[in-house]
Amino acid sequence: MRNLGDFPSVKEGTAIMRIEPPTEGKNGIDVCGEILIAKAGKNFDFNPGTGTKISDEDPSILVSTINGQPIVQERGMKVDNVVMVKAVDLHTGNMTLDANLVVKGDITEGMIVRCQGNITVGGVIESADVWAKGNIIIGNGVLGRSHNHDEYDHGYSVSVKAGRNIRARYASYAKLYAQGDINIAEHLLHCDSTAKGCIVVGNEKASGSQVVGGITRSSVTIITDILGAEAGVFTQCELRGALDIKYYEVACNNSILEAQKKMLQNVRSAYNKFMTVELTETRQKLVDKINNTINSIEKEIIASKERDQLLKDECEQMIQGLSIVVKKKIQPNVLVIAGSAQFKTSRERAAAELFYRKGEILYIPALNH
Fold it and tell me: Is residue 67 a contact partner of residue 81, using CB atoms and an 8 Å limit?
């Protein structure tokens, strides 16, 4: 029911209208049997609209100069790089387009939106799957629900992913991902949020903004008025930096190191067996080769260990400077993870900044700044 076909949109350089040459026409007969003389067709020139031009190769073809929605006008067309709809629902169906999208109302439950530009929503995104290459700006909020009640995996009904930034008034039970920043004006409730930039909850107008429940991950910083809930709802924050790839490099290097150690063990075992028998000239040559192999593997193991330490040092450097800024208070049952370090609250804490330094998370009350 929701798949009504792709929303009409064109890419730059697409032929969108053609002028057919006029014909002389053919004479006809009216109801009285009289001859009707045909009128010759007229030749009209294109009236190119915004976002279009006459093709350089063929003057009878009109092409788009931008990505967007084609709109027919008198003796031509225009292409609007902003597609405007009242709502994304069963009337529009799922939407896939190459232009910017402006939704005056809501993106309703069960809808799928794929946009190569920016998405602006006047209302809410409710239990929908929304992706944009650019920014996603939501006038109200993101509303979802949990498919289960596991504190680590809610199975959210709404997913919002942006190639740049996400901005909304509030979000609850939602999976949010942004290559840039996530800005929530009021509350981030029971969400799985990941930002390669900052996650900021609250602004100058909002008072008492909160991050409650779920998992909040940032590669730079997390800022909020209140972290957690007075009732002790489990709330997890992670400061990872751009560490995913670096951790993968560490894991790969460890695998290589383990393989080298196993190979060294096997080669040494072979060497010991040779040493239990009488060494002929041929066997001596094999022993010399085995010795050379052992030396080579030992050098490789030393290099792998040095590389392992270097990668770990790089991880430490990358995570330095990451912080969580809580302007009012930290509630109980809040877990902060940075690298291999953890910090968990068992009671209410005052406003503070949390930093990762030398393998541990430091809690610095705001009064000391």
Answer: yes
Q: Helices 243-274 and 281-319 meet at what angle, rounded to 10?
A: 160
For the chain, the residue count is 369
Q: Which residues are CB-neighbours of 306 under 8 A, at least 6 positions away? A: none
User: CA triplet 362, 365, 367: central angle to 5 degrees?
Assistant: 150
Label each residue of 172-218 as H, E or C: ECCEEEECCCEEEEEEEECCEEEECCCEEECCCCCCCCEEECCEEEE
Question: Within 13 Å of residue 326, how many CA atoms lie on the same side as its CB?
Answer: 24
Query: In 49-136, where does DSSP find H-type helix?
Result: none
Q: Supply the pTM of this predicted model.
A: 0.69
| Closest C-alpha among 355, 353, 354 to residue 319 | 355
pLDDT digits (tens, 9 = 90+) for 110-155: 999 999 889 999 999 999 999 999 999 999 999 998 866 555 555 7
Q: What is the C-alpha radius of gyration for the chain, rounded to an integer number of angstroms?
A: 32
Q: For residue 224, which of 271, 170, 156 has the smallest C-alpha distance? A: 170
Q: How would you classify the pairing of strands 61-64 and 52-54?
A: antiparallel
Which element (helix H / strand E) includes 184?
strand 182-189
As a 3-state breakdown, the chain gives helix, strand, coil percent values, each rounded to 5, of 20, 40, 40
More confident residue, 63 or 368: 63
Those residues with Cβ within 8 angstroms of residue 186's Cβ, 6 or more apart along the chain or in another chain: 169, 170, 201, 202, 206, 209
**Which is it for the CA torsion 289, 292, 293, 294, positive or negative?**
positive
CA angle 77, 111, 103 (to 5 degrees): 50
Amino acid at residue number 38:
A
> What is the C-alpha to C-alpha distance for residues 102 and 86, in angstroms, rounded to an integer?
8
Give whole-number Cα distances, 91 to 5, 7, 94, in Å: 12, 12, 9
Quote the tokens at residue 305: 């260990």
